[in-house]
Amino acid sequence: MNKKGLALFLRARVRPPHPPLPPNQGRYPDSPPSQSLPLPNSNMDPSLSNHHRANNISPSLMLKDVKDWMHASMSIPAHKIEPVDTNLENFLQGYLGLAQEDRRELILVLAKDYDVNRTRVRDLMQQYLSLEPPHALNDGHSSGPEEEGILSAFYRTERNLRDAIKPMYALFFERLNAYPGGLKLLVVLRADLLAILAKENIPSLRALDSFLKEKLITWLSPASLGLHHITWDDSASLLEKIVAYEAVHPIKNLLDLKRRLGVGRRCFGYMHPAIYGEPLIFIEVALLKDVAVSIQDVLWDEPPTPECEASCALFYSITSTQPGLAGINLGKFLIKRVIELIRREMPHITTFATLSPIPGFMQWLLSKLASQFKIGKTETEDASTLSHMGFGSVFRENILLPEEEKMIVDSSVGYAVGNSGLEIMKNLLASTNNEWIKSDCLLKALKPPLLRLCARYLLKERKRGKALDPVANFHLQNGAMIERINWMADQSEKGLQQSAGLMVNYVYRLDHIEEYAELFINEGRIHASPALQQYVNNKPGPQGWSEEIDPENQHKTSKYYH
């Protein structure tokens, strides 16, 4: 191992573990729930805490200092550049040195004490309503000097209203963004804000988050981001970040990293000049002959497909490195930029697809199985009462088809107990030892219902009009379609626990990306291949249930589902 590789992995392995974030905060859909703040969440930054201990400065006094620097950064006139910069620098260093509880207090002060000055807004609104519009505004005639004066009053009041309606922290954010290191701090501050909002739903904090999110969307527009092809020749510090942040499919060793950056593979990251040496988001691509059906085949493809023979660019991991950018869809633009680049450099690549996890499937399925088991048990106990009343439970549904029920019961001897196929399936999938994957009989019995129910989960289950699965929602709103569900595609412990080993291929059809995205966002339509039609309609094909793409149909017009 060379010095670069040794240094890289030593630093990556001794890096302090990231603290956990609240669920669904600070990560992209293809990213696991372990992504966290770029700075350790220990009480204080070591250098700053040493400084304050050496000077006998208590945490409470330090918090007061940071508040004072924040206030001064907003109140000092813009033309006094040096004092403003000094206070911004002090605030930047001081905030990173605060304990989490002190950060919470500071953010609450920022949200409440530096909000919109509603008294001034109210006064200006009354002043505006008291103005009498000149007749020229109504009849379209040219205005005279008197009417021009009235119009000037309107323009002046409207300008004052626009300024007054902005929260006072708007100027603070603008000045921080323009200061070196300030944009990175704003991203960290929003990550802290999101963590607080996960526990405390405070209106002023929601307003602060909404405003800061809009600003970050503007400052991190695609035009300001550079697409960087990450290779083994990049700096060790950049590669270290790739190793540390990649948790969709963790990088195991130096050989694994070199493989992902070598022949037949690509890694691209979005970089911003104000956040030097750190990708905001990165995507890993495999160049293959066909769309992969297993993550094992992608990660350990040896030897890799010669690039001149590849016809498919497979996106198998996309990771956001900044929790503070949650809800800002940089991935959409990254995927489109990467597709454009690959098409330009390798015109023989004609298929652009993903091999994606289904992180919410098992949670949804186990909840569904548990509720139906409970309903069935209650109905059995109260059968006489229900029969006498003339009705059964309106919540009851047949999760399993009759033939599936029989196959599970017949195959479960020695592996699980239960009085029904539904109960046996629930017990098998809820077990932590995953013994069921070691039995060929159980695999054969569970495959049809799992594939069918997974198709239902992806195509039918919604929350507020969006796909229930976060990864599905991400790719569908970006203009992809659902092509294929893959059986036993991720046999890792995480893959079995979150999706029973299933993975899904989303395909970006270049001629339909905008159309599919618009239909999904506006009407909730999900486009899927004809191969998935059999699952939704509960009708096996002539050869039985199949998770494979039909070569005859995979390029035909897709079906869509509401």
UniProtKB/TrEMBL annotation:
User: In its UniProt record, which GO terms are filed under biological process?
Assistant: acetyl-CoA biosynthetic process; fatty acid biosynthetic process; malonyl-CoA catabolic process
Every copy of the Malonyl-CoA decarboxylase N-terminal domain together lies at 156-219
Task: Identify the Pfam families for this entry.
Answer: MCD, MCD_N
Domain spans labelled Malonyl-CoA decarboxylase C-terminal: 225-508
Start-end of Low complexity biased regions: 33-43
GO CC annotations on file: mitochondrial matrix; peroxisomal matrix
Q: Which domain of life is it from?
A: Eukaryota
Q: Where is this region: Disordered?
A: 13-55, 537-562
What GO molecular function annotations does the UniProt record carry, in alphabetical order? malonyl-CoA decarboxylase activity
Polar residues bias: where?
Answer: 44-55
Q: Which Gene3D superfamilies match?
A: Malonyl-CoA decarboxylase, catalytic domain (3.40.630.150), Malonyl-CoA decarboxylase, oligemerization domain (1.20.140.90)
Stored InterPro entries = Malonyl_CoA_deC, Malonyl_CoA_deC_C, Malonyl_CoA_deC_C_sf, MCD_N, MCD_N_sf
Protein name per its UniProtKB record: Malonyl-CoA decarboxylase, mitochondrial isoform X1
Which organism was this protein described from?
Dioscorea cayennensis subsp. rotundata (White Guinea yam)
Q: What is the lineage of its organism?
A: Eukaryota, Viridiplantae, Streptophyta, Embryophyta, Tracheophyta
Q: Per UniProt, what is the name of the gene that codes for the protein in this document?
A: LOC120267504
